Amino acid sequence: MNFVRRKAIQLCVMIFGILPLFSFGQKLEVIANQILSHTAEIDLAQGELKSVNTTNGINLRLEYGQMHISYSLPTLEEEGRYYQVIPSIQFNGKELPLILFESLRGDWGQDLNPGKKEIIWINLIQEYKQLEGDIRIDLEINQWGQRKLPYNCDLGQPEFTSRQKLPYYLAAGVAAASIGVGQLFKNQSQDIYSENYLTASSFAEASPFYEDANNKHQTYLLLTYAGVGILVADITLFSIRQHKYKRSKKLYDEYCEDRLGNRNGQKLNFSSGIIGGAPGMKLTYHF
């Protein structure tokens, strides 16, 4: 299982590295960066957190086998900016290889607004049972945005067309296919286990069935982790792209429409009348 988790983490990291290619050259950048850290002593079996302090912006509490990580994001200086929070957890000096979207719930990832936030680390007892020692929580907080405002009107009206959305739809389809194929392997594994392994008359007869069922189960886990990773990354990147488009459209409408109105608002006005003492037609073309 540890081998499968390591492979799944490596695969998801690769996916998160590739999918930004779908962002089409966004000009967002990190405006500010900060890392909040908090170290405490944990005894999971006793449900205790010792030597907890809140002076560095993070507050921890252990409740019903889950750790609640509370923190706050300060007010943003300009409209259109947002926060990205990347958590990491170390135990006795070694980083825990968490699959973040599987182990952490709440306020982390992209597109976070200011205010009080909370991350919940779930399934501690199921995953670890014994967790006793020093635990350190690190939150890397990045403030994203564009340094130059308002919108550059020379770029024209912002667009987010169906063609530009196509890579996101394709990525979602790949994710769904990966998860679906994984379910097929899971069903095959369960069928082999129940119909062949459990009904075998000897260990020698049952052993090949167990290996086959286990291999299919590992394949199911890899495909499922990969599919979920692609889907989460795709949704995140699509949200960023949509967020940028809406922000750019709002800035364009606010700063560009009035300035470009005389240039783009071309009119043809026709009016009948008298020209040079004779009946005629007046044609006026406004640039």
Please render the helix and strand layout as text.
Blueprint (H helix, E strand, L loop, with lengths): L1 H17 L10 E15 L4 E3 L8 E5 L2 E8 L8 E10 L2 E2 L4 H4 E3 L2 E4 L2 E7 L2 H5 L3 E14 L16 H36 L5 H53 L1 H8 L2 E9 L2 E9 L1
Antiparallel strand pairs: 1-2, 1-10, 3-4, 4-9, 5-6, 5-8, 5-10, 7-9, 11-12
Structural account:
This protein is an alpha+beta fold and 287 residues long. 43% of the residues lie in helices and 31% in strands. It has helices at 2-18, 100-103, 124-128, 162-197, 203-255, 257-264, and strands spanning 29-43, 48-50, 59-63, 66-73, 82-91, 94-95, 104-106, 109-112, 115-121, 132-145, 267-275, 278-286. The strands form 3 sheets. Strands 1, 2, 5, 6, 8 and 10 form a 6-stranded antiparallel sheet that branches. It is flat and about 80 Å long.
